[in-house]
Amino acid sequence: MLPKALENVIEALGHLPGVGPRTAERYAYYLFRSNENLSKNIADALENLHKNVKFCPKTFALIGSDEDCSEFYSNPSREKTTVLVVEQPLDIYAIEQTHQYHGTYHVLGGAISPIDGITPNDLHIKELIDRIEDDDVKEVIIATNPSVEGESTALLLQKLLSEKYEDLKITRLARGLPLGVDLSYADQITLSAALNNRTNL
Known about the structure:
two-stranded antiparallel ribbon, 2 domains, globular, 8 helices, Helicase, Ruva Protein, domain 3, Dna Topoisomerase Vi A Subunit, Chain: A, domain 2, alpha/beta, 13% strand
């Protein structure tokens, strides 16, 4: 029988995505064996997480509690008439690392997933429509994940926006096979996208 305090830590860590019971046990025992300061630093960081991080009211990107708006929107060098739509805030940083995009972002907060109870009303779609009108947006780039949920969300957005704004340019990130991947390991969605987006040689 494990001490209750250790069981509590294992149970708490087990709620993290991708952390099963055995991994949670290893993490908990590692923290117990490590210097007490490590646990204190982690506890302090977690305690400050909800106090000092919030969502931007315009883009729904992550910002500090002392900020009014994301720099991805407030920076004058950002082109407000172009909006790239992603599912989660951390998706923004993957795009930013390319140094190829200079527009703004909009975070939906997830993707449509009936099995998880996520409907279009749970996403920041209304706020996206408000931005299109407020900022006179010319192009919306849909960059949802290449999953069943992401594809469903992209199709819904395309339908809603194209019906509401005839002159709005709606595009999607190009999809296909990544370098170094054998065809036998590619999933059906990736293969379908690669076929549909094939190019001339």
